[in-house]
Amino acid sequence: MLQCQAFIFREIIVNDPVTFPCTCSGNCPAVQWTRFIPSEAVIAESRMCHSEQYYERFSVSGNASRGNFSLTISSVAYNDAGSYRCSCNRNPVTEVKLKVIVPTVIKAFERENVTLPCYGNTQDNVTDVTWKKDGQKVLVYTPANRSVTTTEASERRLMMSIKGFLDGCLSLHISSVHLSDAGLYQCLLHDESQDRDPKGVLLKVEGRQQLSTTNSNEVSVLCVFLGFIIFVSIIGLIVYVVRRCFRKSRSGV
């Protein structure tokens, strides 16, 4: 069994960039990045102080002169999910498991109430439901005693429906959304040992100032449009009156 110095787990949103660290000492060491799950493939190598990348989006981005042979994926694709290994002089030093998330996007304005959807099978003795934001726990629900625990920063603003839990609804309700609430949310059953849908929710929050600017721009466009309509109507009325007067003057002659 391979013994690695470091094992890293990364969850990345599809199309986002990611960097896997790898440190290898020595004078021009032989470094190789491979993907070994779900299939074996060499991603990048550094031999005789020269680096080679075999895939367009993958590159060794660290400072090789300082022993940094980090691997960067410029834009993560869904099929990039799997396990990666960095080997130094044929000795594995780092293993990374990459999970790619395709989140549901929810948009809200500051101080609005918002619900982040999540559903799962709660019929099989679920011991806990955990909501995480950017990898950090923000809410934990324990069905055994129907207790909801939240972080101090989000106390009283985050809640989950206990009644909805019985129907498999694990949605997170956030009242009076803050700009700092924006981020990637995930709900986990049994610490992610059971499936749930969706796998993640990306919350985007816009400030009220942005809303005011947007409304102001919409009002400005509407005013210009109405002004144009009024202008055309006045011109049409003037042309009509002039024509009537011209016809009357000709008939009088």
What does this structure look like?
The chain is α+β, with helices and mostly antiparallel strands. The chain has two helices and 20 strands. The strands form five sheets. The chain has a six-stranded mixed β-sheet with strand order 1-9-8-3-4-5, with no helix packed on it. β14 and β15 form a beta hairpin. It is flat and about 105 Å long.
Low-pLDDT segments, ≥5 res: none
- In the sheet with the most strands, the strands line up as 1-9-8-3-4-5
Distance between the termini: 113 Å
Percent in strands: 35-45%
Key attributes of the depicted protein:
six-stranded mixed sheet; single chain; 253 residues; 19% helix; alpha+beta
Write the layout of secondary structure elements.
Blueprint: E1 6-13, E2 18-20, E3 31-37, E4 41-47, E5 50-53, E6 58-60, E7 71-73, E8 82-88, E9 91-101, E10 104-109, E11 114-116, E12 119-120, E13 129-133, E14 136-142, E15 147-150, E16 158-160, H1 162-165, E17 172-174, E18 183-189, E19 196-197, E20 201-206, H2 208-252
